[in-house]
Amino acid sequence: MLTIHHLNYNYPDFTEKVVSDINFSVQKNEIISIIGESGSGKSTLLKLIYGLLDFQEGEISYNDKKLKGPSYNLIPGHKMMKYVAQDYDLLDFVTVGENVGKFLSNFDLDLKQQKIDEALEVVEMSEYKHIFPNQLSGGQRQRVSIARTLSQQPEILLLDEPFSNLDQTLKLTIREKIIKWCKAHQITVIFTTHDLSDAFYTSDKILVLEKGKMIQFDEVENVRNFPNSEYVARLFGYVNVLDKEETSQLNIQTTDNAIIYPEEVLITDEGIFEGKVMESKFQGRDYLIKFLMNDVNLVAYHSKKFKTDERIRFNILKFRPL
């Protein structure tokens, strides 16, 4: 088990902490995604876990053994972990296959080639095995970098924005294959992402960071269904955040502010509330309807496109006190 306890870090000559009082633990074979706005400390946290930075306060341990930063290790990093940064760090003067096998033992060359081939197949780069990396696109280089790490079968895999340069159609397949492969090989994965679909479809738990602080850490469904702040709720896309005066206009019985997701606003002819449509935007499967009830701005999903200024009726199906 990996445990992070009261972890604090600030860069030299900076007084503000980049990572502040982080506490969480990760079980073997769990998939953890770290989400948050740019500058929230996601990449820094991965570097601290891997041992590339010296933290000022706190503790990181793995299976009850304390882990230290580069000041305590001749070679930065921990042998049971592998870390894939956003720069990929490939050698352009050797082939893709040689890059993937760079850190593998030559004692058994057949086994080495087997591991290389398996890793390339996972990221769908087998046909590029004998190509040089400087002939590849950014997304392809990213996949080779991930394959090199998979081939070493670490106990813990740390990935910094691992799917950021992949085309959407390809990303869905590659993402699923990587996570499935890691689960099958009992590999713990911690990755950062800006794409909430990555977190939803791959993670067992989500860790939310805001300005270096851990705002929430829980199972995916709980973070989405029970966000503990407006910041967390807004990370998941469109959301209605209503203050006390606005909730009273919608007959919501709460003394707090309220969060209502668009799918929890039902547009129906039998609705008890009436609003005026401001905008309808096609979202692929349905329309995002922005409308106004008195002075309350709301958003909802609907299969039909409404005209601007059209009157609609609606009900509130569910809300969450905030």
TrEMBL record:
Residues 4-236 form the ABC transporter domain. Gene3D superfamilies: P-loop containing nucleotide triphosphate hydrolases. The keyword Cell wall biogenesis/degradation does not apply. One of its GO terms (molecular function) is ATP binding. Pfam families: ABC_tran. SMART domains: AAA. Keywords: ATP-binding, Nucleotide-binding, Transport. InterPro entries: AAA+_ATPase, ABC_SmlMolc_Importer, ABC_transporter-like_ATP-bd, ABC_transporter-like_CS, P-loop_NTPase. This is ABC transporter ATP-binding protein. It comes from Chishuiella changwenlii. The lineage of its organism: Bacteria, Pseudomonadati, Bacteroidota, Flavobacteriia, Flavobacteriales.
